[in-house]
Write a structure and sequence with these properties.
The chain is of the alpha+beta class. The chain has helices spanning about 5-10, 40-45, 95, 105-115, and strands at about 10-15, 20, 25, 35, 75-80, 85.
């Protein structure tokens, strides 16, 4: 498409340097043309022509979704050990990325403190057996 053809469309306007900038974008989910304010900065940056990108990068079709169609950020996770739903600050960053099987900080501490090779039951100072469960750490 020639520069003159692009100037006539409602989707682009030209800035200094001769590179196109979008006025509106189409959401891939709701299929509506929306102004840039209805997209996150990351989505707008993803759709923008990158002058320094490798060849053919700007030719690829970009899948852009508006704020309304984008899922809200996750605020809680459920620990796979204690099965409790907790806020994100009670999970390590690595565990937050592992959304399939996250372990909370308390369960990670218990796992780290356990002796994997110890098969004998723990005994208290009075000689009675201790039976700790995952719930004791919650």
């Amino acid at each position: 498409m020639r520069k003159k053809d692009l100037e006539a469309t409602k989707h682009f306007f030209w800035v200094a340097g001769g590179r196109p900038t979008f006025k509106t974008l189409q959401c891939v989910f709701c299929k509506e043309e929306k102004p840039l304010e209805e997209f996150s900065e990351m989505q707008v940056a993803k759709a923008t022509f990158d002058l320094h990108a490798p060849a053919l990068t700007n030719v690829d079709v970009k899948l852009i979704s508006c704020l309304k169609c984008t899922a809200p950020p996750r605020e809680t996770l459920t620990c796979c050990k204690c099965s409790k739903t907790k806020p994100l600050d009670q999970f390590a960053r690595v565990q937050r990325r592992n959304a399939e099987r996250p372990r909370c900080l308390k369960c990670m501490k218990k796992h780290r403190d356990e002796d994997v090779n110890d098969s004998d039951p723990d005994y208290s100072s009075d000689g009675s057996s201790l039976s700790e469960t995952w719930d004791d750490y919650s």
